[in-house]
Amino acid sequence: MLHIENVTKNYPGFHLQVSLDVAPGTVTGLIGQNGAGKSTLFKTILGLIRTDGGSVTLLGQNAQALGAESRQRIGTVLADAGFSGYLTVRDVRTILGQFYPGFDEADFRRRCESSGITDGKKVKDLSTGMKAKLKVLSALSHGADFLLLDEPTAGLDVIARDEILDLLRSYMEENDHRAILISSHISSDLETLCDDFYMIHQGSIVLHEDTDRLLNDYAVLKVSEAEFEALDKSCLLKKKKEHYGYSCLTNQRGFYRENCPSLVLEKSGLDEVITLMARGEEV
Amino acid sequence: MNIIISATSMTPIYEQLQTQITGLIASGSLAAGEALPSVRAMARELRISALTVKKAYDLLEQEGLVQTVHGKGTYVTGLSSEMLAEQQRREIESELEKVVQKAKNYGLTPEELKGILALLLEE
Amino acid sequence: MKGLIVKDLLLLKNQGKTLLLLLACGAVMSMSFEPQTVIVYLTMIGGMVAMGTLSYDEMDKGYSYLLTLPVTRKMYVREKYLLCVLWTACCAVIGTAVCTVITLASGQKPDTADLCLYGLGALLGICLVIALMIPFQLKFGSEKGRIVLYAFIVLCAVAFILMQRLSGAKLPEWVADVNPQAALGVSAAAACLLVVLSEQIAERIMMKKEF
Question: Which of A210, C33, C58, C154 is least surrounded, with the fewest CB atoms within 10 Å of its CB?
Fold first, then answer.
């Protein structure tokens, strides 16, 4: 669906260099701190900025030269941009119908209503939550094959986020060959939705893992200095100095569980992995 | 479907899912020929990755409990409950075998091991 | 491209109240000045308002989202020119019609040929403005564009008033010999050429832009 090979983009003080793949039938997450390069990467995929090297192939074509018809197969949510605030929801519906032959008007209308998004309201007068939902509903409204979502749940409360994630789950349920690339800095979103994810830090990919493996095999060891010295470090990825000694990230939970049963071993979620990958040191 | 996944348990999610589906088949809640929810539907219900569900389904298929028909879905095979019980007994046996071996390595006597087992069974 | 046109028309529709106010001003103006002023005024407003859609697109990073829809950058530029020129043309026609009505209402017989000339002249003039402004706005943004636009309009208004004053003064002799139809034809051709040229430049600017 999406194949990014060594794409580079240079800004003063920032260098992006990424390779990434999204296969059909997959939900891939992109996680990283603010400023790590998530939005920049999205912009190169969508052709909003030029690349300084490498290639981005989207739906089998060069992403920088994607034609209007191919764009009908994509649904997008951008973090800080959408339809003009001076249009009403009804206007948005009309416009979407003009742009996308596959637009399902009745369905869009129904979903907007059930989300409390009133027809006559101008987009700029909607609450943050409703604005975000409108963006997601717009992306979902025309049977796209691929969704590119840049922080679709930013600024939303837990309930609203949950609703949007569920919309995305049912989108994937409808068709086996669809795919989603979703970026967020809210880990719990990705843990319950994505099949695999890439972690981006200062413009590079520092980790690529299946969510399955993350939740099953990764763990954080909390050890004292003495315990650390005696520890078999072969399966550790990162270590971080703590007041009690060290916290260490491993992707071989089973190994430490069996051989060091006395050590404090905690299941790690995406948050712990990100913190240790970003702020930990090499072992 | 009454499947409950614990996010905090140390048991891998796919294993939890596999175990619970096996239990449903053994108890008869899932009849032979019945279809399991699609991978995505299950993933949605449980809020887990689709790959995890697929892993569980694949393992169940390897054990002969289900069969995936490409393009249609995953169906419970007609494995009789006796065969299932036999399979589960064999599983427990192999796990216990590992424990017995470990006990030997650590120098536990058979009595000590039996004592531990008695204690655990009382709980 | 249809989607873009619909979007712009809806944006313009939502500005209905502002437009009505401007129309009312125009009505007042036509009473204090000559009725032909209405034509120029309405055409000018039409052009400005149509070009205003560029500002709306630029607001809140609107360009970024628009370009992810099924459009190409070329399409975007072409639509803008199409919209501006056609909208301004409509306003010129409406202006001419309104002027005719006002003249009739005041009991005079309107010189339709003369009024149409005014209308066409206004249209060509505003097309010139469009040809200059769109590439400028695309390259430098709406803020700077707006300042330049207002300055230009003030300049035009001053020039127009000056011309009115001078129309009593003697014109150079060759002007009287010029065939009005030919002059119009040449102006129209020149305007078309400029608009096409401007569109090509705008396309190039748009292709290079990063969002």
Answer: C154
Q: What is the nearest CA distance from C2 to chain A, expressed in angstroms?
A: 6
CATH number at residue B20: 1.10.10.10
Residue B32 inside a domain? The answer is: yes
Q: Three-state secondary structure along C36-67?
A: HHHHHHHHHHHHHHHHHHHHHHHHHHHHHHHC
* Chain C CB contacts of A103 below 8 Å: none
* Mean pLDDT in residue range B8-33: 86
Range of the domain at B108: 81-122
* A15 Cα to chain C: minimum distance (Å): 17
CA-based nearest residue to B70, from B61, B82, B79: B61
Contacts of B112 (CB under 8 A, 6+ apart): B103
φ, ψ (nearest 5 deg) of residue A202: 50, 45
Same structural domain for residues B70 and B92? no
Rounded distance, CA A176 to CA C31, Å?
A: 68
Contact C14 A43 (CB under 8 A): no
Residue of A nearest to C61 (CA): A81
Mark whether B69 and B93 lie in a shared domain.
Answer: no
Q: Which two tokens stand for residue A180?
A: 């989603």
When divided into structural domains, chain B yields a total of 2
Any CB–CB contact under 8 A between B40 and chain A?
A: yes
Cβ-based contacts of B55 with chain A (< 8 Å): 212
DSSP assignment string, A30-61: EE--TTSSHHHHHHHHHTSS--SEEEEEETTE
- What is the pLDDT averaged over residues C160-167? 73
- Is the Cβ pair C3, A98 closer than 8 Å? yes
Domains of chain A: 2-210 (3.40.50.300), 218-282 (no CATH)
Cβ distance of A49 and C59 shorter than 8 Å: no
**Span B56-75, mean pLDDT?**
88
Residues A50-83 have pLDDT tens digits of 999 999 999 999 998 888 899 999 999 998 899 9
* End-to-end CA separation in angstroms for chain B: 29
Which of C5, C61, C64 would you mutate first to test chain A, the one with the most A CBs within 10 A? Answer: C64
Interface confidence, given as ipTM, is 0.87
Contact between chains at A210 and B49 (C-beta distance less than 8 A): yes
Q: Is residue B47 part of a domain?
A: yes
Domain identity same for B103 and B71: no
Q: What is the average per-residue pLDDT within A116-121?
A: 90
Token representation of residue A47: 């052709």
CB contact under 8 A, A95 and C56: no
Structure confidence at residue A220 (pLDDT): 92
Distance CA A172, CA C35 (A): 63
